[in-house]
Amino acid sequence: MLKSMGILLIATAILLIEVPPLLEKKYKKELLVFSILLVIGVGLSIAQGLGKTIPNPMDLLTYMFKPLNDVIAHLSK
Q1: What residues have CB less than 8 Å from 41, skipping those under 6 apart?
Q2: 10 Å Cβ neighbour count for 7?
Q3: Could you tell me which residues come within 8 angstroms of residue 30 by beta carbon, excluding any fewer than 6 positions away?
Q4: What is the rounded distance in angstroms from the CA atom of residue 46 to the CA atom of residue 5?
Q5: What is the domain count for the chain?
Q6: How far is the C-alpha of 28 from the C-alpha of 35, rounded, in Å?
Q7: pLDDT in single tens digits along all 77 residues of the chain
Q8: Single pTM value for the model
Q9: What's the angle, vertex CA 19, arms to CA 17 and CA 21, rounded to 5?
Q10: Cα separation of 53 and 57, whole Å?
Q11: Alpha carbons 25 and 53: distance in angstroms, whole number
Q12: Cα dihedral value 26, 10, 40, 21, nearest 10
């Protein structure tokens, strides 16, 4: 629980530093992307802090490209 509070405090500090200039310059799309990425990052950090396993993105890429790799390997024989 303490780790989660620390992560939320750091995320709040990041928001306080980064959001006002974006609002001042009326960068609405950039603010949306920033917010989405921050929420994803905070969520994953809290999950990791609570001891949950986070899947490796490389596993997804391996799963997606393994059939293509198999076809190329079969054709090169």
Answers
A1: 11
A2: 18
A3: 22
A4: 9
A5: 1
A6: 10
A7: 899 999 999 999 999 999 999 999 999 999 999 999 999 999 999 999 999 999 898 999 999 999 999 999 999 87
A8: 0.75
A9: 85
A10: 12
A11: 39
A12: 10
CA 30 – CA 37 distance, rounded (Å): 11
Task: For residue 14, give the nearest of 40, 38, 48 by alpha carbon.
Answer: 38
Structural domain that includes position 65? 2-75
The set of residues, in sequence order, having a beta carbon less than 8 Å from that of 54 and lying 6+ positions away, is 44, 47, 48
Residue 75: strand, helix, or coil = helix
Q: Which amino acid is at 31?
A: L
